Amino acid sequence: MKQYFDTTKNGVEVSKYTIKNAKGMQAVLTDFGATVVDLLVPNRDGNMVDVSLGYDNVDSYDKETTYFGAVVGPYANRIADARFELDGVVYELDANNNENNLHSGFSTWAKQVWTVKEHTANKIVFSYSAKHLEQGFPGNMTCDVTYVITDNNELEISYYAVSDQKTTLNMTNHLYFNLNGCLSGDVLGHELMIKASRYTPVKNAKAIPTGEIATVEGTPFDFRVAKTIGRDIKAENDQLTYGLGYDHNFAIDKEVDGVERVATAYAPESGIVLDVYTDCIGIQLYTGNFMEGQIGKQGHKHAMREGFCLETQYFPNSINEENFVRPITEANVPYETKTVYAFSVK
Ligand code: BGC
Predict the structure, then answer these.
(1) Is-contact 274 47, C-beta < 8 A?
(2) Atom 5, ligand 1: which residue's CA is nearest?
């Protein structure tokens, strides 16, 4: 199903597209930012719950810097000093987060109108083409993001991009989850497991990693055994002070080369379980620390921590940080990654 959503400030009409499976799990997406607006999954009583934070109008998606549900590209999270060097050439980006680049800058792919290439009952393919040096990134690029709702109540997100020049690609989806429902309050009672024995501490509140890949052992960042998001969030810890809570990349303990389960969240009230599968090496846990006052769906005024993100990615600033795997995509060689958000009940 396709229906009119809104008109952008440039006068472009954007739509809402529904995809669903036979069990009733359903996603509503918009071509603005290839964004997931609603994500309806069954709770333990079989009632559908919208677990994705979003807005009612395109203006908010455009203006706000929460990136609710959007596809972030070409480069997710931060690039220090809004610049990087590739083969001796320096590329200058937007400094849109202090002196740094966040989520690719002011004209991020999250704020572009994408083309719909294919739309069937349970699948939609969004496509975006970026010109060489658009937002400062090298290469004419074309990108397809495919969302599928499987019969197993999974939202599968596949990223495919090709550039005609060597470039950097590090894409993610910025869904904010609240497994008790997007208007239900904070997520501190959700239990969370992240399969990571290391994480990347940041230098200060501007959130650029130090370059260290530090152990989580004995820190509030140890989610290897499930604990509530709220258990240690107020612990005395410089890293938590910098981020106003969790806003950190975890180095996934990879067991296989491809897609594997890397995190599980569970909301005891609704009974909804979210398992995250990915082939990415990093995952950003962001606990909605900077969302206070956002006007979400149905005019709901959000407080901080009413959603959490598990953004699969290369490590922040990895294009500049020699200690991290550099996300380099060669000319005409496809960049491909996959992340699956799987829902069940307990
Ligand atoms: C970043 C946060 C930022 C949020 C919304 C996250 O990926 O790590 O620092 O506030 O996105 O922009």
Answers:
(1) no
(2) 66
